[in-house]
Amino acid sequence: ANLDILDTAGQAEFTAMRDQYMRAGEGFIICYSITDRRSFHEVREFKQLIYRVRRTDETPVVLVGNKSDLTQLRQVSKDEGSALAQEFGCPFFETSAAFRRIDDEPANLDILDTAGQAEFTAMRDQYMRAGEGFIICYSITDRRSFHEVREFKQLIYRVRRTDETPVVLVGNKSDLTQLRQVSKDEGSALAQEFGCPFFETSAAFRRIDDEPANLDILD
């Protein structure tokens, strides 16, 4: 299959080309920025445009909220994106492709949040084959998510067929102490079993292990 990406930056002179792509395409990714509510409001217009050009509601669509690493600038909640996708009857995920330097070497940090939707299983496995390291994240307020950590670790091994892949275990929402269901000792013990680093974080208060930190990539 061919994946063609047409980014016209909203320039009117490309309208005819856009309609031509819509007639020829077999599926569409509608993308908005979680930091720009206007772009979210335009999603419905693009969905209606696809219908107007193709005259059918049967065209496959995926809704994507981009820039999920910029949590401090978020204007569109994940629940809003999920609700709109349910209205459209299409899959939804938030994603981020952020550029960082690690040990003074350029690196791409890709964050793919599929909200557990089964239709993204193939994409998840593809990311695992291509990735050079993984952050396994659970919520300290959700014991079920903690139990799923071991499954994801085993999945990484199954896909990559090696135990040498770097992993970091992260317990998120450490600010919600009154709702805690997983102790810090439990997280630390599991990380020791995996032989990997462990942190508890709060994206809301931008802290790692109760210390101020740059958490612009943690949600």
TrEMBL record:
PROSITE patterns, alphabetized: RAB (PS51419), RAS (PS51421)
Pfam families: Ras
GO cellular-component term (any): membrane
One MF annotation (Gene Ontology) recorded for this entry: GTPase activity
Superkingdom in the source lineage: Eukaryota
Cited InterPro entries: P-loop_NTPase (IPR027417), Small_GTP-bd (IPR005225), Small_GTPase (IPR001806), Small_GTPase_Ras-type (IPR020849)
An example Gene Ontology biological process: signal transduction
Protein's recorded name: Small monomeric GTPase
Record's keyword terms, sorted: GTP-binding, Nucleotide-binding
Lineage, top ranks: Eukaryota, Metazoa, Chordata, Craniata, Vertebrata
